[in-house]
Specification:
alpha/beta; 7-stranded mixed beta sheet; binds 3,4-dihydroxybenzoic acid; binds magnesium ion
């Protein structure tokens, strides 16, 4: 039933359709994200292709939005970060934002559990021309960062924690061993549709987030805040923390 004006079902346009959003959102939240995304933030073809490729990963559509990716890039630049560590690569969407922000002399080390995801990410990083400044460590992130700690790697200037949430407290512990006073720490997905306030939650992801909040609150060497967000990814938020200068 196709004619000159109706694209065939297998036309290229279908490849450009973003993955179906699996987060509850409202038309208004989406419209505002789209407005700022269209006016302030440029998602180039390499990033769009990366976002679309996330449907082939083990967690489709879990990548940050363009607006959030831009925030990560701005934080890297504002902090003057040259060395960035990321927990959770998936298709490499946030990795590309981070890698572009560190510049040609910077580097991003990103931890990914799944070999297939890492392969997808590698292709995306190449397309974005940043693969030379990114190292993907494949395997359980706690093993990878243990190796980094044992090898006495230089401290990271910014760490983005965005992997499996139950392990967040352990990722924070490792982060504290891999950073220096002044380093910036960002923790994604800490609101989870408001579930974070439920102290009796049995959801291991919520418990992981709450334990991380408690650990940050109890650590005199960290200053932090948490910001709620709404948008195409629903109701969520992030923690922004910084290691204080005092010993
Ligand atoms: C989840 C993880 C993410 O990194 C994300 O951005 C959204 C959801 C999750 O574990 O559910
Ligand atoms: Mg996330």
């Amino acid at each position: 039933m196709s004619d000159a004006t109706t694209p065939a079902p297998n036309a290229k346009a279908s490849c450009q359709t973003p993955p179906i959003n699996r987060y509850p959102t409202t038309a208004q939240w989406r419209e505002v994200d789209d407005y700022f995304g269209a006016t302030l933030v440029t998602e180039d073809e390499a990033l769009t292709a990366t976002r679309i490729s996330s449907s082939a990963t083990t967690m489709p559509n879990a990548e940050v939005t363009a607006n959030q990716g831009s925030l990560l890039g701005l934080l890297v630049k504002i902090a003057g970060a040259r060395r960035v560590l990321e927990f959770g690569t998936l298709a490499g969407y946030s990795t590309i934002w981070l890698a572009r922000a560190v510049g040609p002399f910077g580097c991003v080390v990103t931890c990914e559990l799944d070999e297939g995801n890492a392969t997808i990410a590698h292709t995306n990083l190449e397309r974005a021309h940043v693969s030379e400044r990114v190292e993907i460590l494949v395997g359980p992130a706690l093993d990878s960062v243990r190796d980094l700690i044992d090898s006495g790697t230089e401290p990271f200037d910014l760490v983005f924690i965005d992997a499996d949430k139950p392990n967040n407290p352990a990722y924070l512990d490792a982060t504290l061993q891999l950073t220096r006073p002044g380093s910036v720490i960002v923790v994604d997905n800490v609101v989870r549709d408001g579930a974070v306030v439920r102290s009796d939650s049995t959801d291991p992801r919520v418990r992981g987030v709450r334990a991380t909040v408690d650990a940050i609150a109890a650590n005199p060497h960290l200053e932090a805040t948490a910001i709620q967000t709404v948008g195409v990814k629903g109701w969520d938020g992030f923690i922004l923390a910084r290691r204080t200068e005092t010993p």
